[in-house]
Amino acid sequence: MIAKILIVDDEAQLCISLSKLLKARGYSPIFTTESEKVMGILKVEKVSLVITDLKMPGMSGIDLIRLIRTEYSELPIIMVSGYASVDNVVKAMRYGAVNFFEKPVRFSEMAVEIDRLLPKTVMKSSLKNQKWQNSRYDGSDSSILTFNPSMQEKINLLKKAAPTDAPVLITGESGTGKELAASMIHAECSRFDKPFIKLNCAAIPETLLESELFGHEKGAFTDAVEARSGKFEVVGEGTLFLDEIGEISLKTQAKLLRVLQEKEFERIGSHKTRRMEGRIVAATNRKLKDRIREGLFREDLFYRLSVIQIELPALRSRKEDILPLTRLFLSDFNQKYGKNISGFDQETEVLFLKHDWPGNIRELKNTIERMVIFCDEEIISTEFLPEQYKNYSATDKTVFLKTASNSISRDIILDALDKTGGNRSRAADYLGITRRTLYNKMKKLDIEV
């Protein structure tokens, strides 16, 4: 059985980052940013360990430990905080924490403690047997892995938009993670336990789209043999994600505008007015202002949809995220296909960094999946890389190694040191940089081994 670890911290991005590291290490992480929800989670999830922050809005970490101890006296609890005073450490230990780590947390040190705490019966299994268990509290479906400042800014905007009921328009190229961003908004808002329904407007013929959205009564048209609820009804008080919103017809746009303005609609073939109780989040890879100038999209609908507008950057402008994402996808596909591949060779990683990724994260993910399927070795080499990714020169290699080294952050270095047992030479090889470059970066980032 895989150990499930609950992370409690009001900083969602910290929860996401720590979840990724725990997942890569073989654990099943879940998280919440609200300490008041912890006891409810513990009632429905078999949690083996809790990691909690000290200072949080509402219930503090100390109060949370005391509350957990009233019902779960044996559950190990680790506390983390940026306020590691002697008094705070003593209080945490007195009320039941088994250890205390100061922020920013050195994951390599925490991992040793986690491995020590969790009994053999619930410790991480081999990659071949891992089956991740998700719940409505699990951040794995709505988390965004990034070390890119621009993308981190977008995540902060998503977090600020989430608690409101304002319509959100997410823009960006295909494959940049618009659906993931929408699911993050849903996971971070008060509707998180209500339905999250996705509808790709471009994938449904226009003649059927109206029925999908509004529903219809029996006999409303030739094939309407029975009454059917549309997405506006089915979503209830949840979130309706309308992808490729730029593809709908002007007729449907007019009806959608009414839903946004008046929060009401009628099924096709009915005069009964129904209320729309849910929230709408829309996305498009189109430049909607261009569509407006072309007479293909209503300007009033655009302004209704884009009360909050967030544009996601292309992967080619997030070079520092490429290698962490490849390792995340490698871990996922190792689990899916029962493989135990440990990583990519340096030349393959250089090619990953060189490629423009016009299909963005979706293209990268599909590429990694293909490579995992065909690779039967411990390390993935360029042998398993499709031909279109292999065009490069020696100059390219030098340039992109430099790019890689410039984009390496503290978290990436700590992760590399953890995976190589603190060996600097092996960590440098793993990161595709020289030992001297690694040493200089560690010194600059105040990292000790």
Helices and strands in order, then pairings?
Blueprint: E1 4-8, H1 12-25, E2 28-32, H2 38-44, E3 49-53, H3 61-71, E4 77-81, H4 86-94, E5 99-102, H5 107-117, H6 149-161, E6 168-171, H7 178-187, E7 196-200, H8 206-214, E8 215-216, E9 228-229, H9 231-234, E10 239-243, H10 250-262, E11 264-266, E12 273-275, E13 279-284, H11 288-293, H12 299-305, E14 308-311, H13 319-337, E15 343-344, H14 346-354, H15 360-374, E16 379-380, H16 394-407, H17 410-419, H18 424-431, H19 435-444
Parallel strand pairs: 1-2, 1-3, 3-4, 4-5, 6-13, 6-14, 7-10, 10-13, 15-16
Antiparallel strand pairs: 8-9, 11-12
Search tags:
Rossmann fold, 19 helices
Write up what this structure looks like.
The structure is a single chain. The longest helix has 19 residues, at 319-337. By secondary structure, the chain is α/β, with parallel strands linked by helices. The protein folds into three domains: 4-132, 3-Layer(aba) Sandwich (Rossmann fold), CATH 3.40.50.2300; 149-311, Rossmann fold (3-Layer(aba) Sandwich), CATH 3.40.50; 316-444, Helicase, Ruva Protein, domain 3. It has helices at 12-25, 38-44, 61-71, 86-94, 107-117, 149-161, 178-187, 206-214, 231-234, 250-262, 288-293, 299-305, 319-337, 346-354, 360-374, 394-407, 410-419, 424-431, 435-444, and strands at residues 4-8, 28-32, 49-53, 77-81, 99-102, 168-171, 196-200, 215-216, 228-229, 239-243, 264-266, 273-275, 279-284, 308-311, 343-344, 379-380. The chain has a five-stranded parallel sheet with strand order 2-1-3-4-5, with helices on both faces. The protein starts with a strand and ends in a 5-residue tail after the last helix. Mean pLDDT is 83; it is low at 120-142 and 393-407. Helix 3 (61-71) links the parallel strand 3 (49-53) and strand 4 (77-81). The chain is globular. Helices cover 44% and strands 14% of the residues.
